[in-house]
Amino acid sequence: MMADKKRILVTRDFPPAGIDRLKENSAFELTQWEMDRPMTREELLERAKDHDVVLCTLTERIDREFLEACSHLEMISQFAVGYDNIDVAAAAELGIPVGFTPDAMSDATADIAFGLMIASARKMFYLHNTIAKGEWGYFRPRGHLGVELSGKTLGIFGMGRIGMKTAQRCRGAYNMEILYCSRNRKPEAEKELDAALVDFDTLLGKSDIVSAHCALTAGTRHIFNRDAFERMKPEAIFINTARGPIHHEPDLIRALEGGEIRGAGLDVTDPEPMRQDNPLLFMENVCVLPHVGSGTNEARNEMSAMAADNIVEFYRNGRIPHIVNPEVLSG
After folding, report:
1. Quick one: pLDDT at residue 331?
2. How many C-beta atoms surround the C-beta of residue 49 within 10 A?
3. Residue 3 pLDDT exceeds 90
4. Averaged over 67-87, what is the pLDDT?
5. Is residue 1 part of a domain?
6. In the 8-state DSSP scheme, what is residue 265?
7. 42 and 111 share a domain?
8. For residue 1, what pLDDT is reported?
9. 287-317: b or e for each residue (b if 16 or more CB lie within 10 Å)?
10. Domain count, the chain
11. Is the same domain home to 168 and 250?
12. Which residues are catalytic?
């Protein structure tokens, strides 16, 4: 081994599209976590201490304590579009740049959001389970009725890449009216989809489907709470494919049980994994998936390639193509 090789700790079994590129680069030495389960915090901390780069994902908690203990790290490359598992401010203070993989999973996650809308509107998961339990029974003209999505109003909370692609699917397939609430105006969405920028209260009050696509921040944590669900239409469906803590789960359960909203489709929960006795799993009008928004061959390979490129380019020319905290490199 060359003394000047950069040691990269790979925390999970990431797809080969990027990992093979790193392995083939003579400038790097990779340490691959060998188990299927995530590392414990202690295992991650111990291994990171003698590496230059950590290639990680959302299951790793990279907080201030970790960063201060591993302040020698030259960069962190995140295999995800989100990075709420990383204390970015602390990383910036310590001069550690953080790379991520935006847009690689946008189509895959938009598909999940779109699918959850249909599945929850038609009670698909619940009805599938009735077959498995031997409860198919006989035809009931008024039994387990769902709703159609054609012509409904979609409210996008967070019109970023995934929100835009979700809106495109809903507009194209069902000619939905598109409302959106976002930090910045999105002229592209307004021009292409005739989308209307509205405030949060209007989004809640006028949407038949409310789909969350925002980042998890102090301002969005539990923004979908009891008050928000009470302001939604009683026939509304809530979709969350962003982060579990964006909705307050006990308040969501209460709203569904009390008929304050019609249904919900979740790819994210709080906590994760969800307990197997969670009431949401047994509701007729709810569909839950185990955080698989990016779960396609195309998306995961693209994420792997982007995470690897962030490392390669950092050591090649001092730049990171997709960086969370660019101020670290601006000096």
Report:
1. 63
2. 12
3. no
4. 97
5. no
6. E
7. no
8. 34
9. bbbebebbbbeebbbbbbbbbbbbbbbbeee
10. 2
11. yes
12. 243, 272, 291
Residue range 28-44, pLDDT digits in tens: 999 999 999 999 999 99
Q: How far apart are CA 164 and CA 184, in angstroms?
A: 13
Cα–Cα nearest to 13, from 79, 108, 97, 99: 79
Instruction: Give a yes or no: residue 35 inside a domain.
Output: yes
Helix (H, G, I), strand (E, B) or coil at 326: coil
Asked if residues 79 and 56 have their Cβ atoms less than 8 Å apart, the reply is yes
Q: How many CA atoms lie within 13 A of 205 on its CB side?
A: 5
Whether 197 and 326 map to the same domain: the answer is no
DSSP class of residue 9 equals E
Q: Which helix (H) or strand (E) holds 202?
A: helix 200-206
Element (H, E) at 6: strand 6-10
Of 265, 299, 269, 215, the C-alpha closest to 113 is 265
Same domain membership, residue 37 and residue 119: no
Distance CA 143, CA 148 (A): 15
If you search the block for the tokens 């090649």, which residue do you land on? 316
CATH number, domain at 116?
3.40.50.720
Residue in the structure block whose two tokens are 């901390």: 45
DSSP at 245: G
Domain that holds residue 151: 106-288
Q: How far apart, in Å, are the Cα atoms of 106 and each of 16, 149, 174, 223?
A: 20, 22, 20, 23
Cβ-count burial of 109 within 10 angstroms (0-12 exposed, 13-18 middle, 19+ buried)?
buried
**Quick check: is 18 in a domain?**
yes
pLDDT tier for residue 330 given thresholds of 50, 70 and 90: confident
* Cβ(295)–Cβ(71) below 8 Å: no
| Structural tokens at position 110 | 């938009």
Strand order in the sheet with 6-10: 28-32, 6-10, 53-56, 75-78, 98-99
Calculate the CA 233 to chain-centre distance.
Answer: 25
Q: What separation, in Å, do the N-terminal and C-terminal C-alpha atoms of the chain show?
A: 32
Query: Do the strands 53-56 and 6-10 form a parallel or antiparallel pair, or are they unpaired?
Result: parallel
Question: Which residues lie below 8 Å from residue 5, measured CB to CB, with a gap of 6+?
Answer: 26, 27, 28, 29
In one letter, which amino acid is 201?
D
